Amino acid sequence: MNFRVISRNVGFALLVSALFMFLSILVSVANGNDSALAALMISFIITFIVGVFPFIFVRKNAAITLKDGYIIIFLSWLLSFIFGMLPYALWGGPFTVVNALFTTTGGTILGDVESLPNSLLFWRSSTHFIGGLGVVVFLLLVIPNSSPVRLRLANMELSSLSREGYRSRANKTVIMFTSVYLGICVLAFVSYWLAGMSAFDAINHAFSVCATGGFSTRNLSIASFHSDLINVITMCFMLLASIHFALIFMVVVTRSLKPFKNPVLKFYLSTLVICSVITALYLKIGQYEPSWYRAFMDGTFQILSYASTSGFATADNSAWPLFPCLLMMYVGVQCGMAGSTTGGLKSDRVMMLFKAIGRQLRRNIHPASVSEIKLGNRIVRDEELYPHILYIAMYGMLLVVSVLVCMLVGSGGANAIPATISSLANVGPALGEIGTFGNYGAEPAVAKVIYCLDMFLGRVEIYPVLAACGMIFSRAKR
Fold it and tell me: What's the rounded Cα separation, in Å, for the pair 350 and 389?
């Protein structure tokens, strides 16, 4: 491993965090030097010094290997979480070290979000914005164009199964991701502002919705605005942020809807429609909503919120019947498309799993037949399919182990199961007392640490983490 190139690129990731800490300081000053100013200034100084250190004392080295890339991704995310929790931990209040780390990784322990100073609320949303685009894309901005590992790192944020209808190089990947991501953020901000939000609320919710993170400045999330227009705007941007960014980019560039004929997108949208309709029917027929309009509005919003891993809320799902809640958990496992800001398994892998099951059933019924898996006009080979099926298996094993450990440390099964599913998918809210209007404050500290690890693995994905850990441990044994 090349420690020089690793330290410089990890330092760059920390400087990105330091930049947003500085912006949070400006928010504090604009609000009359609120109570988080000192915590943010100390955090900024520490993060900036650690981040800039390699650029001063380590010579630039353009050579980078795939192994270095995996270590860079792993350490960048890990250290971003650790340094990102400093403002919370130093500010105090409900933020113990564990609670601060839990909040940084994407969960919430806050019963009263509105009690936080505006600067800390801005930092809270900023961590979503940073994590949404992905440290991978930030690093692609600084890794030399000539490096053969650049394309490999780009592929970590994509799936070959989603690329039906377009081709791209690593350079184009950076352009597509950043332009679509920033475009969604800007459009969301303008839309929220025009719909009646204050500029501060609009920028915070824009950060959260483009990153499909879901942190709100209000205790009741989107529901606190009592506006169907804001609800619809949020649904539109949650959907956009959960679609493969390259498809959106190609639609805008070519001015054609042809890229949206992608089979994975059709599968994802079909799942959303079916689950939303079933949820709405349950809510209205069971008299959980007063009208068909309200049933479809709230049902569709919550299904899309969980599928996009945003976690925004317009209704309290703790009062809903079990079956719609199970549908929400299912879409929270499947989630959106690869190449978006969503977590979870991704619709790409789930679609391939269903196709693989169908092929195996056909082979059992007709052993002599030749059965192939097709994605649009392309045949998916077994060697391409195998890593995705294996990933689903590892995801399931991690889910079971996490649930068992959380139950052993005192989290009840009613919380441990949905909380683990939600954490692995990076959704945020789960069911019951940790549902849409609840929080994880009462969960055991050890369970919160497990949820943090699940959120980390769910966002970075299992393969890169395993590869990085394997290289670190193998080097330590030498």
Answer: 9
